[in-house]
Amino acid sequence: MDTRLEKIVKVLQEKAGATYEEFRGEVHVFINVGQIVDALTFLRDEHQFSLLSAMTAVDYWPQENPRFHIIYQLTSLTQNLSIQLRVPVNGSQLKVPTATRVFEVANWREREIMDMFGIEFEDHPDPRRILMPEDWEGHPLRKDYPLGYEEPQFTFNFDEIDVRKPYAKE
Amino acid sequence: MSEYHLQEIPVGPYKHLVSERAVSGETMLLNMGPQHPSTHGVLRLLLELDGEVIINCIPDIGYLHTGIEKNMEAKTYLKAEVMTDRLDYMNNMGNNLAYVMAVEKLVDLEVPPRAQALRVILTELQRISSHLVWLGTSGLDLAAMSVFLYCFREREIILDIFEMVSGQRMMVTYFRPGGVWRDVPVEFEAAVRNFIKIFPKRIDEYEALLTKNPLWLDRMVGIGKLDAATALQNGVTGPMLRACGVNWDLRKTRPYAGYEQYDFNVPVETKGDTYARYIVRVQELRESLKIVEQALNKLPMGPVRSDNRKFVPPPRSEIGTSMEALIHHFKLWTEGFVAPKASIYSAVESPRGELGVYLEGDGGPKPYRVHWRTPSFDNLSVISKIVKGHLVADLIAILASTDIVLGDIDR
Lengths: 170, 411
Fold this sequence. Notes:
The complex is a heterodimer of chains A (170) and B (411). Chain A is α/β, with parallel strands linked by helices. In chain A, the strands form two sheets. A five-stranded mixed β-sheet of chain A has the order 1-2-5-4-3, with helices on one face. A two-stranded parallel sheet of chain A has the order 6-7. Chain A is 26% helix and 25% strand. Chain B has a domain at 68-306 and 346-382: Orthogonal Bundle (Cytochrome-c3 Hydrogenase, chain B), CATH 1.10.645. Chain B is 48% helix and 12% strand. Chain B has a three-stranded antiparallel β-sheet with strand order 1-2-3. The chains are: A alpha/beta (170), B mainly alpha (411). Chains A and B meet through strand 3 and helix 3 of A and helix 2, strand 6, strand 7, strand 8 and helix 15 of B.
């Protein structure tokens, strides 16, 4: 690990009780839900991590504790460093404080996570769905949300399946 | 006929986004798109207007959402690559590169130098073709019809080269984990050299038409100003960020695929307006061409695929004689290769900015989660901040200068 990153991780460990993992030269720091906004502010102000490159989530269903990880990929342009913060979220407590006050880019990114995973961001300025239609039910990127498929029609059951197949008919 | 009439947009769901005056009915809410030629795809912009002046702009996206991230979870690593072409359909090679680099990082796979050089040549040609589409359509939006025709003429040469190497003009899927699909044909070098020979003069032609054209300047200088701090706050990357004076190009700062061997400049402007973005992209055309030429000059000989048979299928000639090769072939095309239970984030510089892939494996042959950090998504989100106070006609120029691709935004 880069010595500059080592220092930062050490401070996060002391201040926020974080743990970390390393894989292929990347550093993933695990932070509690309650401390994520402080950690982001700290990284932005003290260590010039001025760009929130990516923000997304992963669903670990059927595991409930934690069910999701929220991922914040931060980049420091001046130091040319990257760090990833991961926030475990329990399936029974789907609430995360919003990061929009630290990084404005989190606005749309959080809307996307809200839309795709059904995780609520507290005090979000614009909590609407972003990619799916407003009246959509469910959250497509959850692992318990089926992908859906088209039934293959063969000669012997073509008409039978055609009756219930959902496409426009004459 | 009577049931189809113009509908007023209710303020209700947008109350927290518009000004007080919209609630009292003093300003007007107007829909621009989703079917509008200058939104470069299916993008709907909800505008709050005071006469011709934009008070607020609320982008509404998702019309092109195809669930690519979800679909990729259901396919093996190799088959999922086909979906990447369909993301940003102006940057197919670049998307392939981002994806195969992520897979290679996840499974720790080496790529031979010839494949790396071919990847650089084709990605840079793709960058040129993407910028040409941007230049042509921006010209079209600002009523410069001829530029569009010239740009598409040159883009055709690049697409022909793509067809030559991959069999496809757009949906190429040419880069594969561990190398490229197969070696380029013998005519490849001559075709690229021909392009290198004619293209600099063509860039001069575009510049003669536009760079000092008073109409072009009138529409662009001082329009849609973005400062570096706002850009970074909003996650803006690529030429848009470099137009506001931030020298950040992943090809220079975090070289991948052998970019450190090539000598090229990163064009940076400081004004941050629509014109600065134009200048940056036009200069990038020249720089990309420089990279293509250097890479072609020292294109090494050798294999174009890794010989790690656990990840890369064996050549056809081996299958007939070697039992082991046959087994590998069968396993790779049925089950696919497995990746460790871990996650990585890998990013490349696409024509629009930082194209990042978050890839997580679960020890099986299919990705557990793929997330695309697409540059257009964040570059569009800043638009509501930079159009305030401009006229509707300026919005067209600003939107053209962000160079968004809706397939990239909606995924």
